[in-house]
User: Which sequence fits this backbone?
């Protein structure tokens, strides 16, 4: 994109001072600040407070900006995710929640501590070796997946269900409805058909595990330690849900297939730490195909809300359509 997403507020240093005052009181000031790149939903800035602490301020979209259905309430959801992980999987490094605020003028925002390190995507772009950090990330997610919810799907009264099949179907239907609202052409009937076809397979998932969902390289932080880069942070947890832990095998190998890369360091780390290491048999391959289908549908439907069109981002639109068709074709013949 040439500019910020329509969902991202345009902020100034003066605005950040207002958020800091609303979060920590009028006596707390800003020594330095600047925007953080990489995301396309909220506006995110780093801030050095006048007491020396470094924090991250994430500001939700204005209430007048249209969002996808599942994106309602994401700022509060991120605070809940970080608190869940800090409480139930304390060895996993997530940012401490310092303040979650809602104000009629400022809107909604979240302040967390700023973790050290750089993202794996930034590390890869500079030619760094992040394999050990990816292994660490696999072990971290295995610990997160031990946390169990009380139902499947999103929390806090959002879309979900008493079974994984019910919740997953509802999540797909929400995205299809978003596609209609935004005028995004997607093969809705093919998608519904493969979900119905594999409903019994989804019903085999009996425990609603805590799933990060968005574990691509940009959300995993690493820093040098002992001659290699080690994971030091997991961020952007607002899209979390409770469901099949295998959902989290999709984003770390974004636009690829985990079952085709069994020697990937992330998968080695996950298998080493998981209570039930993945076995890439026919059933798991089908489930992974369904979860990739869901992600490609989401990435397609969200384009207009992010200011992306088929004309402005033709490679993205064509590439996602191809990947979605490949998964639908495979799932239709299984």
Assistant:
């Amino acid at each position: 994109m040439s500019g910020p997403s329509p969902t991202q507020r345009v902020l100034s240093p003066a605005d950040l001072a207002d958020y800091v005052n609303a979060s920590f009181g009028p006596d707390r000031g800003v020594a330095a600040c600047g925007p953080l790149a990489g995301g396309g939903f909220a506006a995110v800035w780093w801030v050095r407070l006048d007491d020396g602490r470094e924090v991250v301020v994430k500001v939700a979209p204005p209430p007048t900006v249209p969002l996808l259905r599942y994106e309602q309430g994401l700022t509060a959801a991120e605070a809940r995710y970080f608190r869940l992980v800090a409480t139930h999987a304390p060895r996993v490094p997530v940012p401490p929640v310092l303040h979650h605020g809602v104000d009629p003028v400022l809107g909604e925002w979240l302040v967390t501590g700023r973790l050290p390190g750089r993202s794996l995507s930034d590390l890869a772009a500079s030619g760094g070796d992040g394999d050990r950090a990816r292994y660490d990330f696999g072990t971290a997610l295995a610990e997160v997946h031990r946390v169990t919810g009380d139902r499947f799907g999103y929390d806090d009264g959002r879309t979900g269900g008493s079974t994984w099949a019910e919740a997953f179907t509802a999540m797909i239907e929400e995205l299809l409805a978003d596609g209609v609202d935004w005028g995004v052409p997607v093969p809705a009937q093919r998608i519904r058909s493969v979900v119905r076809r594999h409903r019994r397979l989804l019903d085999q998932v009996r425990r609603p595990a805590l799933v990060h969902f968005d574990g691509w390289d940009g959300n995993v932080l690493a820093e040098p330690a002992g001659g290699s880069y080690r994971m030091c942070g997991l961020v952007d947890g607002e899209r979390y849900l409770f469901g099949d832990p295998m959902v989290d095998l999709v984003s770390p190998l974004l636009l690829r297939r985990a079952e085709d890369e069994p020697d990937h360091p992330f998968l080695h780390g996950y298998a080493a730490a998981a209570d039930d290491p993945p076995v890439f048999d026919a059933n798991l391959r089908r489930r992974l195909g369904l979860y990739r289908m869901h992600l490609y549908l989401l990435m397609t439907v969200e384009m207009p809300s992010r200011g992306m069109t088929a004309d402005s981002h033709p490679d993205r639109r064509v590439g996602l359509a191809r990947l979605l068709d490949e998964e639908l074709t495979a799932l239709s013949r299984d």
Q: What stands out?
A: The two ends are 38 Å apart (CA to CA). The chain has ten helices and twelve strands. The chain has a mean pLDDT of 96.
